[in-house]
Amino acid sequence: MSIDVSGVTKKFGDFVALDDVSVSLPTGQLTALLGPSGGGKSTLLRIIAGLDRADTGTVSIEGTDATRLPAQKRNVGFVFQHYAVFKHMTVAKNVAFGLEIRKRPKAEIEHRVDELLKLVHLSQFSHRLPSQLSGGQRQRMALARALAVEPKVLLLDEPFGALDAKVRKELRDWLRRLHDEVHVTTVFVTHDQEEALEVADEIVVINEGRVEQIGSPDQLYDEPANDFVMGFLGEVTQLGDIRLRPHDIEVSATPGSAGALSGRITRLLRVGFEVRLTVSTAGGEVTVVLTRTHARQLGLVEGSHVWLTAASGATTVPAMVAV
Amino acid sequence: MTSALIGASAAAGPASPEGRRPRRVRRTTPHNTLTRGAGLGLGVAMIWFSLLVLIPLTAVIAAAGQGGWSGYFDVLRNDQTWAAVTLTVSQALVVTLVNIVIGSIIAWVLVRDDFWGKRLLDVIIDVPFALPTIVAGLVLLSLYGPNSPLGLHWAFTPNAVTLALAFVTLPFIVRTVQPVLEELEADVEEAAASLGASRATIVRRIILPSLAPAIAAGAALSFARAISEYGSLVLLSGNRPFQTEVVSVRVLTFIENGNNQSAAALASIMLAVALVVIVALDVVQRRVARRG
């Protein structure tokens, strides 16, 4: 295991940011810490990096106990949400910073900086100042800077949070490819479940200072440990006494199968290829998603009477009382 | 006033991208691009500036120039005047250097640390600037004068000049550095730390270059104020020729004796000194800001 966190608790005044958290993150993988804002995931990342100190518990990195090591000695690369660029230095100087501090020979630094700038596709910008780069470019520069010192682990705190949707998606794919190239153990924090599902090998779901579930994206999506994980990873609706995803509900225009719940469509919304129905049943409102073609086949309009069943093989969890 | 100065020097501070990239062709603007509003604003600014500063300044230089170069040399050849000039310039430089260190430390403490009475200290910093300067002299006289409770009888010695100048220029660097320090993002320092930089390296290579334009702006203000100080020195220094007499007192003496030309010559010399120091500060500031 590359990073071992055990029994970490962190309080800010009365607020419990982390409550007895233990996680082991395997070497060479890309792990996402996923959870809602204020859930403690950034705090955990900062404690791993040594930027914050845990009240209790231990952190070990690559087998060495790092609990009392200052950030300077941990040899971790850290990438911040708002880039944290050194504004007065050129792109090349920013990337060289960690190496210059380590007093490496000039030629070696130059060579390594060239290599890294090529890796992050910023070679032609090496003499620019960070203020002349776009947000996405700045973040790639920050990544190159963090990688320059050959860290044992790379930690990214909401790395794409400040970027617009399109750039975010590009960088996300790019990060995945970069990770496949350099293979450094990487942990990134995100509150975007799509980002986590798409990029990560493993996801740690953190909520209210506790770990809710650890697993691969498929495991989390198919076998959510609880209602929270299910709800956080995608849309959820309630059909009778179970909770399931809106696209896992089968709609029929006739009362065919046994146990079907009958209802009336109160709202029908077309968004691109999909159709969202709000069906009013005896057990409350149910949201259903189906394709446009399917809806047309069934001849659904607002006010139609429909019968709903859970699709076979659907991921379901029992509904909690008073949700 | 101070913030305007910071703004100006900060804008000029970082290396201009055009200057670095010779290949980029600068588009020239042959046409007047000012809108009517902007033209009006510029006009008002220029008239005001001319009436208050440019024309009177030119008049002084013209008055001083009437005697030709020899007028300047005659003034400087006077031993008493030369003593006043060296005393003023050297004390102003010393005080400015002290302010660069102490002012930055005070700004740091006010921004980064939490302690009881911080708000109060923050307000009191401006007192030396806000006090009428003659009162400032009185205040210092009570502690360092003939009846000094500390046993420091500095009144009427060159130390008194240092003391008075340090007192009145104290707020300048504090007030220019403080807002810049507040704007510095903590994550930049954390990034440097995670790259292995020690605290000292972070201060030297990350924080100082960011503060350099503000420190330079404050130092320029502090120096300019120091070489022109008059009020606080009157009580404290005693204006003793060759010992504690500063340039502004000397100028006054010239005028009182009806020697307006010498007064103007000495004034324009001090103007040149101030310009040289301010330009030098800007050069140093650019060096530091680009280092790192």
UniProtKB/TrEMBL annotation, chain A:
Protein name per the record: ABC-type quaternary amine transporter
Regions annotated as coiled coil: none
The protein's enzyme class: translocase
SUPFAM superfamilies: MOP-like, P-loop containing nucleoside triphosphate hydrolases
Lineage, highest ranks first: Bacteria, Bacillati, Actinomycetota, Actinomycetes, Propionibacteriales
PROSITE patterns xref list: ABC_TRANSPORTER_1, ABC_TRANSPORTER_2
Organism (species): Nocardioides psychrotolerans
InterPro entries: AAA+_ATPase, ABC_SmlMolc_Importer, ABC_transporter-like_ATP-bd, ABC_transporter-like_CS, Mo/tungstate-bd_C_term_dom, P-loop_NTPase, Sulph_transpt1, TOBE-like
Cellular component terms (Gene Ontology): ATP-binding cassette (ABC) transporter complex
From TrEMBL, chain B:
Family matches, as PROSITE patterns: ABC_TM1 (PS50928)
Topology term for the membrane: Multi-pass membrane protein
Low complexity compositional bias, start-end: 1-17
Gene3D superfamilies attached to this UniProt entry: MetI-like
Subcellular location: Membrane
Major location (coarse): membrane
Entry-linked InterPro entries: CysT_permease, MetI-like, MetI-like_sf, Sulph_transpt2
Name of the featured protein: Sulfate transport system permease protein CysT
